[in-house]
Amino acid sequence: MDVILKLVKNIITIDGPSGVGKGTLAFSLAERLGWNVLDSGLLYRLVGYLSFKEGLETSKEIVLFLNKSKIKPISNFNEGICEIELNEKVLGKELRNENIASRAAELAKEEEIRNSIIKIQRDAYDSKIGLIADGRDMGTIIFPEAALKVFLQASPKVRAERRANQLKEKGMSVIMHDLLEQIQQRDEEDTNRKISPLKPADDSLVIDTSNLSIKEVEERVMKNFKKL
Ligand code: C5P
Fold first, then answer.
1. 1 pLDDT above the threshold of 70
2. CA-CA distance, 97 to 173, in Å (whole number)?
3. CA distance 166 to 84
4. Distance, CA of 175 to CA of 180 (rounded, Å)
5. Which of 39, 152, 212, 220 stands 20 to 30 A from 113 (CA)?
6. Does any ligand 1 atom lie closer than 6 A to the CB of residue 104?
7. Residue 205 Cβ contacting ligand 1 at under 6 Å
8. Three-class SS of residue 48?
9. Could you tell me what percent of the chain has a pLDDT over 70?
10. What's the order of all strands across the beta sheet hosting 8-15?
11. Cα-based angle 142, 19, 46 (whole degrees, multiple of 5)
12. How many other CB atoms are there within 10 angstroms of residue 221's CB atom?
């Protein structure tokens, strides 16, 4: 029997591959609506970071560490980025590099790791405020009750160029060929994994952002939001 979900209007999910503009769109919508932002990728990056930093080798060790830690996602509107409070320490920049992202994608295939952070993600929603949730499985698994689910896509080349610009703005050096290869490999892993693969929910609004400005994407989403 199909379960009928009661749709929630103050959650918008934004899923899609890396470098497609999810984060920028999430913050511009959140500012406009006065909602919070959940960057779920940052939680998987935290898992990758901890596996390196704490020398945790197995999923079991990682889950034990996560279970005994205090983890809270934060929307930092001053900088337009999300951060994570881990046992009172705020992490942000440390998590944003391609090595951590690749490790995150490897570990994100593990069911016990995914299950251990479901509650943190769902708890990021405060029904009095509203939430823009950005990731790979926000519309399909974490917030299937969201009334508006957006799925962004763009060509790998465009996405690699956008990611390169973001990294350069942060003063990081970029080798374009390597970046494109890393992005394509990560997309392949995210799309083909067995659990919570990257895919649009059946009722998603799918937008190809390759030739659109952020403002144009935002207007399309808002047009659909206003119809709810
Ligand atoms: O979004 P971001 O590029 O920071 O995500 C890093 C990695 O975390 C992704 O490549 C993906 O493997 C994993 N991830 C996921 N599910 C999410 C968000 C991210 O599996 N909801």
1. no
2. 11
3. 19
4. 9
5. 152
6. yes
7. no
8. helix
9. 99
10. 36-39, 131-135, 8-15, 146-153, 205-208
11. 55
12. 22
Closest residue by CA, ligand 1 atom 1:
41
Q: Which two tokens stand for residue 47?
A: 């898992």
Domain parsing of the chain, residue ranges: 10-35+130-228, 36-128
Q: Is the CB of 137 under 6 A from ligand 1?
A: yes
> What would the mean pLDDT of 18-27 be, rounded to a whole number?
94
Per residue in 103-148, pLDDT (tens digit) is 999 999 999 999 999 999 999 999 999 999 999 999 999 999 999 9
Strands 81-86 and 131-135: unpaired
Q: Which CATH number fits domain 36-128: 3.30.70.270, 3.30.70.3340, 3.30.2010.10, 3.40.50.300?
A: 3.40.50.300
The yes or no reply on domain 10-35+130-228 and CATH 3.90.550.10 is: no
Query: Taking a C-beta distance cutoff of 8 angstroms, is the pair 76, 96 a contact?
Result: no
CA of 136 to the centre of ligand 1 (A): 6
